[in-house]
Amino acid sequence: MAAKTVHKIATFLGFVSIFHAAYSAVQHRSYLRITEQEFTTLPIDIIIQGIASLFAVMYGVMHIAGDFKEIRAVVDLENKSWETLRNLPSFQIFNHRGRSLSPEYLVAETDRRDKKR
């Protein structure tokens, strides 16, 4: 649990640092406009801060997100048998109103069974 907290803090600090690098780049650009100098490139400290912040955010997000899944679908399907491949439990509904249309439907017996569950 503590490791997740450390990674969340690293991600947050990385985002803050990226925003600070972006703000510094905007400030540098406006300084060049005021002093009427030509813009050639950003100072090396802003570039290093931006790259280091990007890696900090990537590191934190990779550890917060958890394990990656395989891109190939075959890897997940190899562990399943043919019988369970088309088994969709979310569509298996056994208690529905269609049973009341059956000629063998008895209200009292069905209600007793439902109450036992």
UniProtKB/TrEMBL annotation:
Its main location: endoplasmic reticulum. It is a multi-pass membrane protein. InterPro entries: MMgT. The chain crosses the membrane at residues 40-62. GO terms for molecular function: inorganic cation transmembrane transporter activity. It is found in: Endoplasmic reticulum membrane; Golgi apparatus membrane; Early endosome membrane. GO terms for cellular component: early endosome membrane; EMC complex; Golgi membrane; plasma membrane. Keywords: Endoplasmic reticulum, Endosome, Golgi apparatus, Magnesium, Membrane, Transmembrane, Transmembrane helix, Transport. Component of the ER membrane protein complex (EMC). Part of the endoplasmic reticulum membrane protein complex (EMC) that enables the energy-independent insertion into endoplasmic reticulum membranes of newly synthesized membrane proteins. May be involved in Mg(2+) transport. Belongs to the membrane magnesium transporter (TC 1.A.67) family. This is Membrane magnesium transporter.
